Amino acid sequence: MGSSLPPKEANLFKLIAKSYETKQYKKGLKAADQILKKFPEHGETLAMKGLTLNCMDSKAEAYELVRKGLKNDLKSHVCWHVYGLLYRSDREYREAIKCYRNALRIDPENIQILRDLSLLQAQMRDLGGYVETCRTLLTLKPNHRNYWIAFAIAHHLNKEPSKAVDILIAYEGTLEEDYPPDNERYEHSEMLLYKISLLEEAGDLEKALEELNNKLVKIVDKLGAKEIQASLLLKLHRYKEAEKSYVNLLEINSENHRYHEGLKKSLGISVENGTEGVDTVTKLTDLYSDLQRKYPKSVAMKRIPLDFLEIGSFRSAVDEYMRPLLRKGVPSLFSDLKSLYSQPGKAHVLEEILLGYESSLRMNGSFPGSTEQEPPSTLLWTLFLLGQHFDRRHAFDKALQKINEAILHTPTVIDLYLMKGRIFKHAGDALAAAALADEARSMDLADRFLNSECVKRMLQADQVEQAEKTASLFTKDGDQHNNLYDMQCMWYELASGDSYYRQGLLGKALKKYLAVEKHYADMVEDQFDFHTYCIRKMTLRAYVHMLRFQDHLHSHRFFHQAAISAIRCYLRLFDSPPKSAAEEEEAAMRGMAPAEKKKLRQKQRKEAARAKKQEAEEKLKEEEAAFSSSNKGGKKGSQPPKTADTDPDGEKLLQVEDPLGEATKYLKLLQDHSSEVLETHLLAFEIYMRKKKYLLALQALKRQLKLGLESPDVHRCIIRFFNDVDNLPPPSTDSGKLVNSVIELERSCFKSIESKTLLQANESFLNMNKDSLRHRAAAAEVLFLLAPEQKSTAVEILESSVCSHSAGGGEIAEGVPSWGLKDCCLVYDIFSNTLKDLDAASRWKSRCADLFPFSTFFNGVKSSATCGSENYTYCRKMQASQPPGPLAANGHLPDFSALKIIS
Amino acid sequence: MGRAHEVPVSFDNVRDKNMMQLTKLNLVIFPVKYDGRYYSDALAAGDFSKLVYYGDICVGSIACRVERVSATTVKLYIMTFGILAPYRRLGIGAKLMGHILDVCHKNATVLEIYLHVQTNNEEALAFYRNFGFEVREKIENYYTDIEPPDCYLLVKELSRILKGRNTT
């Protein structure tokens, strides 16, 4: 390094490198300038100066200098390395890899560069390259543990676990007999467990078990070893031993459901939800009555049988299960029982039991058939559970009745108000739900959960401003927007994005959705540090687990929601692009007198000048701040100075040139990570149809068909597709003809339209799904699309739909309408926006208002949208008690501050 | 017949963050609507205003006003004292009163505790007598909107040795 310089300058050059490593950037800069005074064209010095400046927040200058340095000295590995580091600091890993490779071409055995390269390859999952780099590193430094381990991991990631095992065995061969020393026992133990997991992954179960048993003494994670042992035995079909292992594990922790699963499997009892035969149930019953005797205090032993027991024995089991929990007051009891509702008949049994409890507790203060006096709170929790029960069964009237009785009984229990709010939300009154959540919040101002729940409900009721105020009660210094973003508070971003979307504020909505997307990019980024850290600390199992988690990161629900919603925004932007500022101005100017125009122009000019001045001032301030922070900084990982958000309302996001192109970016991520979700392909279809990429749309259609043969949305897409394609002008180009012939060939894949006209296909679709409102809606919409003159028939299809009422045997309670509120809103939308029949729409509205009395959308009589209803009064009251009442402020009571407590 | 499940009773101060609990209690226990003054007094009384918990549930409260008598002595006025109806006859009120008296005994500044009880509230009168409160006088037309409008003034003097200092 710096070899082309005379000794004095060479020393100075070393000083630059050292200063860079120790983060004494000013010193390094001074040294660099000293060299450059004599040798202004010295490439490596220029590059190093650039790198140093990069750390002092002069990005542009840094790139300029590094590029210039490289140009002056293309043969220097230092210059290339520096260029790579610069790219790495900007997270441009692909470019960085290229630079490192060039550097290695000049200096192939440079350990530092090889290590940097390997980290980037791991991050970018360039697995082949990663293996090679690790091989080179190990060859160069065979006595270094970390290189052995990294080499093994590289092979493992490259899907060659058996090779990874060989490497670890070879590595073990280099160790002394009495290894490990006391201070490295954990690291060694993790290595062994990692090796065992590799053997298992390579399919060599016998060997994995053998290795485990041989090394048991050296493994410090005793419980982990036992768990692995049990699962290996199970996989090897050595059931007797597996059973013993799982029984031992249950002895350690009887509440771990995985042990229960293992025990059942080793006894040959396979449990698929709801499909077990009589035989299996008997076996399970015996097993659990044994276990219950053995572990009388275990909750899991009592809870698990509820899943498999037949109605008869279920009744007594669940009865026995619930009593102590109601007595103790376990607010989460309902979520514990929730999964039972999908099993036929069980909901009904629960209802009978709970109603029995209620009447007995009211009459005698004890459970049925018992003389023991219960504490008064038992009735309260029973009512609470009943409320949730009826809510789950969609009997909102009854649910409310029970919750109100509970509130009357004990008005201080906060869960009751939360629950009541949730019932209103399910019944379609978001406003009342928000008001109740706010009341719940007011009862404990120090509870962050209550605050968050309230914020979410407010957003669902589109009270964005209030929601922001409420959220900021719990953020640092009330700087809530940045704070919530920094905290990666995604539920908030999604909920407020949804609210903006509903209100038609696409820019603000997009801003929120894209923020969520950014969090995921950050999470991918976050793994970078672990590539070195985990190998050094030998937490290999956790490391590989983390890498695999990262590979599927984008299939997470929050990302999925954000991407879907962002795509919807872009589609809407494409369908009705926003007016540009110039166009708007023109529209405003039209019809103005010339004098007025002149005035306006002058005013605008003045404003622009003022804005410019202000901007310049702000910039100056920012730079000052940046400078001072860079002076203070120097701690590792110090954050870049915060730049003010230049686009708080997402106006710039609205001006995107190619909304479909943006949408496609997110679609790709969805297709890669959420291909099993129908929605992904529905959106793909929408995008490709607008782009007129018919083959891609066809592909999306075929994927839809695989996931949702019966779905009304798929039906809509199929008919729309072939209708559009059939009405295209005949293709003029060869490729166009080719596309058409492919589509013709593929037409046979779609059974529903085979040998039928599209109209006929629609009719048979309707006939096949006569009883489903959603299907009828699709059929009506499609009919109107194909034959606009048959509008009255389409209206008729919708209006003649009959809403049946549940018989009460299943999940839904007796007498509850079978139609969902969402579907009914959708139909209303079809009436008013697609068919544009406002009379029919208002008829539909009043029909639905009867079905959903709490729905604000349909102005139900009991909803807060209807003047004079209970909810209306309640919401008004809650709003009136907003500031300056003591309830709204978070522990800030100005009136009381002057009072001193006398003691 | 027996009550096998003893539920623990605990106390907590009234603070600005849980003030709403007190409001909720008063709304159902008392026929009177209390104003901001009441709540600021209750808050200022510090250790003399308490919420009582039955398990995790807030079921009752005592709210006091501390009235200064001299530089170092005070009188305690019980503004409200009540337990939610379903939780009465479980001894919770007695525990709460016992707790407050304990606090008073530990605090040397309190000379006496007093309160008003409606004349027809036999139950309450018996309860306070049990704790050593005595009727000092009957005040006619104390209440404006409930029947009967008369009340008793109940007082409990805290016997303590005052170190050579006269009280007013």
Automatic annotation (TrEMBL), chain A:
Biased composition (Basic and acidic residues): 605-624
Entry keyword Transmembrane helix: no
Record-linked Pfam families: NatA_aux_su (PF12569), TPR_2 (PF07719)
The UniProt record lists the keyword Coiled coil: yes
SUPFAM superfamilies, A to Z: TPR-like
GO cellular component, one term: cytoplasm
Gene3D superfamilies xref list: 1.25.40.1010, 1.25.40.1040
Organism placement in taxonomy: Eukaryota, Viridiplantae, Streptophyta, Embryophyta, Tracheophyta
Protein name per Swiss-Prot or TrEMBL: Uncharacterized protein
TPR repeats: 77-110
Residue ranges of the region described as Disordered: 582-652
Ranges in a coiled coil: 195-229
UniProt cross-references to InterPro entries, sorted A to Z: NatA_aux_su, TPR-like_helical_dom_sf, TPR_2, TPR_rpt
Taxonomic superkingdom: Eukaryota
Keywords: Coiled coil, Repeat, TPR repeat
From TrEMBL, chain B:
Residues covered by the N-acetyltransferase domain: 9-159
Pfam (any one): Acetyltransf_1
Domain of life: Eukaryota
GO CC list: NatA complex
Keyword Transferase carried by entry: yes
Residue intervals passing through the bilayer: none
GO molecular function, one term: N-acetyltransferase activity
Keywords: Acyltransferase, Transferase
A Gene Ontology biological process term: mitotic sister chromatid cohesion
Protein name: N-acetyltransferase domain-containing protein
Organism name: Ceratopteris richardii (Triangle waterfern)
